[in-house]
Design brief:
The chain is α+β, with helices and mostly antiparallel strands and 211 residues long. The chain contains 8 helices and 7 strands. The protein has 2 domains: 49 residues, GTP cyclohydrolase I, N-terminal domain (GTP Cyclohydrolase I, Chain A, domain 1), CATH 1.10.286; 142 residues, GTP Cyclohydrolase I, domain 2 (2-Layer Sandwich). The two termini are 40 Å apart. Bound molecules: zinc ion.
Length: 211
């Protein structure tokens, strides 16, 4: 039998509990009940800390509810004399579908055409996280990201494309392991076919060369 030494530096169980919020303890109890409902024994060794871990990870995975787009942007807006397309591709995204509370994950591609202001590029992935770390449907998240960028930067237009694979489709239901869903939201000048097509072809270009 292999020994896995990952627990030796841990704070004793009770102490950890003492520092936890009331809501977390409620969540832990729910997880304990769920374990029992699916036919498990929540008191067996491997599951003892599971409710605590699940509560913590749930808190993290839904931390977007506590955030507004403005919280992550701060003052990272810069005045520029640049009116070509700014595009950030392949932003990694992990979220959970609101129908099954199962993960969906993939890539977000964001583009905008400035109107006097640009945003620090590192802020775009953080903006994505504000909306991804909630229970979501992919279509709504796509629109929310586009609208947040529109509101914050007030550019000439915004385009957002999300390609994602949904575990609720892959692990259950239709069990289509290789299908991915693509959604897009185009605002302002991105509604013009030429701009929209330029964005979509830039998104596709990268994919064919890197996969
Ligand atoms: Zn689902």
């Amino acid at each position: 039998m292999k020994a896995v030494a990952i627990n030796n530096k841990r704070v004793p169980h009770q102490e950890q509990h003492a520092t936890q919020s009331h809501e977390n303890l409620g969540m832990e109890e729910l997880v304990r009940q769920m374990l029992a409902r699916v036919g498990e024994d929540p008191s067996r060794e491997g599951l003892l800390d599971t409710p605590q871990r699940v509560a913590k990870s749930m808190e993290y995975l839904t931390s977007g509810y506590q955030l507004q787009p403005a919280d992550v942007v701060n003052d990272a807006l810069f005045t520029v004399d640049y009116d070509e397309m700014v595009i950030v591709k392949d932003i990694e995204m992990f979220s959970m579908c609101e129908h099954h509370m199962l993960p969906f994950f993939g890539k977000v591609h964001v583009a905008y055409i400035p109107k006097g202001k640009v945003i620090g590029l590192s802020k775009l992935p953080r903006l994505v996280e504000v909306f991804a770390r909630r229970l979501q449907v992919q279509e709504r998240m796509t629109t929310q990201i586009a609208e947040a960028i529109q509101e914050i930067i007030q550019p000439q237009g915004v385009g957002v494309v999300i390609e994602a694979r949904h575990l609720c489709m892959m692990m259950r239901g239709v069990e289509k392991q290789h299908s991915s869903a693509v959604t897009s939201a185009m605002l302002g000048s991105f509604r013009q076919p030429s701009t929209r097509n330029e964005f979509l072809s830039l998104v596709r270009k990268k994919q064919s060369s890197s996969f």
